[in-house]
């Protein structure tokens, strides 16, 4: 069995059930991806940014054993979903290879470092912020319309599966980026979460306006347990309490706005995935998972982040897709 990235492995089981509902394998569908480094398939390789995954050890378990721009040692979440759909992986939208019939498979617009808010990830300089990702989605539809016509393009988009993953960077690379950050001086944590959620609702509503009808929305994982955060903020190797609190505030409110949107639309177009609980299952009981995966997770994490001696091995987890904020 291939050693999947820990983040991917912990999500796939939970997402598989959703996929059976959203994208039956008997019917080919396009697949569109929006979000951050958890789902970026290589767009940042084409940008002048420090948020990159184009060097060792990224890609060591990918079929080519080379870095691809994925923030993973191998496949990432969109790759696994594409496999479940019986389709080839979607290409990064900025890839020159994305042309002709390959456009009909879909596209990946995600960019490492972005958040819901435009001021998230400013230290990474050139990244594709979520509003720009949505503009690229419009551009994509114009390109495809020239190939198959507007009506067929609308049908392709309406029937496609859409994955969007945002939110984590708005905390680790914005609110908690530095002590007394601008956003932390402006908002208390509960108020900041409400602000981010209100902006996220606008993003999802815009996605619907652009034709998305089958949208899988993932919440944030256990941000306080990410190796980079453990190394920078944890004193005794335990998950960082404030970041865990942020996730606990964010995820239920995200689920609530998804319910609101579906009610306003009159149809269950958006589905929430509880990625935080999936991650915590692994963190609290890693022995229940494949031993090879666990061994590789520790090996990968030591290589990528160089876990501090103060961080116990059972906390030194390979939660990929995260990028150090400094």
Automatic annotation (TrEMBL):
The keyword Acyltransferase does not apply. This is GDSL esterase/lipase At5g33370-like. Belongs to the 'GDSL' lipolytic enzyme family. Keywords: Hydrolase, Lipid degradation, Lipid metabolism, Signal. It holds the Pfam family Lipase_GDSL. GO terms for biological process: lipid catabolic process. It comes from Nelumbo nucifera. Transmembrane segments: none annotated. InterPro entries: GDSL, GDSL_Est/Lipase, SGNH_hydro_sf, SGNH_plant_lipase-like. PANTHER family: GDSL LIPASE/ACYLHYDROLASE FAMILY PROTEIN (AFU_ORTHOLOGUE AFUA_4G14700), SGNH HYDROLASE-TYPE ESTERASE DOMAIN-CONTAINING PROTEIN. GO terms for molecular function: hydrolase activity, acting on ester bonds. Residues 1-28 form the signal peptide.
């Amino acid at each position: 069995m291939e050693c999947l990235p820990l983040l991917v492995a912990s999500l796939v089981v939970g997402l598989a059930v959703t996929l059976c509902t959203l994208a039956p394998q008997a019917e080919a569908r396009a697949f569109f991806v929006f979000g951050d480094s958890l789902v970026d398939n290589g767009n940042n390789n084409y940008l002048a940014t420090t948020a990159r995954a184009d060097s060792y050890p990224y890609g060591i378990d990918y079929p080519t054993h080379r870095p691809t721009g994925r923030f993973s040692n191998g496949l990432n979440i969109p790759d696994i979903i594409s496999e479940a759909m019986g389709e080839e992986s979607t290409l990064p939208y900025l890839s020159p290879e994305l042309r002709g019939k390959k456009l009909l498979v879909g596209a990946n617009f995600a960019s490492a470092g972005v958040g819901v808010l435009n001021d998230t990830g400013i230290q990474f300089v050139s990244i594709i912020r979520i509003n720009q990702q949505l503009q690229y989605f419009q551009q994509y539809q114009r390109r495809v319309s020239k190939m198959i016509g507007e009506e067929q393009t609308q049908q392709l988009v309406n029937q496609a599966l859409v994955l969007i993953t945002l939110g984590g960077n708005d905390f680790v690379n914005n609110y908690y980026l530095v002590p007394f950050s601008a956003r932390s001086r402006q908002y208390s944590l509960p108020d900041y979460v409400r602000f981010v959620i209100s902006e996220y609702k606008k993003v999802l509503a815009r996605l619907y306006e652009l034709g998305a009808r089958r949208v899988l929305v993932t919440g944030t994982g256990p941000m306080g347990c990410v190796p980079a955060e453990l190394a920078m903020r944890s004193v005794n190797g335990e998950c960082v309490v404030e970041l865990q609190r942020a996730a606990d505030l964010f995820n239920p409110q995200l689920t609530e706005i998804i319910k609101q949107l579906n009610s306003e639309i009159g149809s269950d177009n958006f589905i929430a995935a509880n990625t935080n609980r999936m991650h915590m299952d692994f963190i609290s009981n890693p022995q229940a998972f494949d031993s090879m995966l666990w061994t590789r997770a520790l090996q990968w994490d030591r290589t990528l982040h160089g876990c501090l001696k103060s961080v116990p091995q059972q906390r030194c987890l390979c939660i990929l897709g995260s990028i150090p904020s400094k």
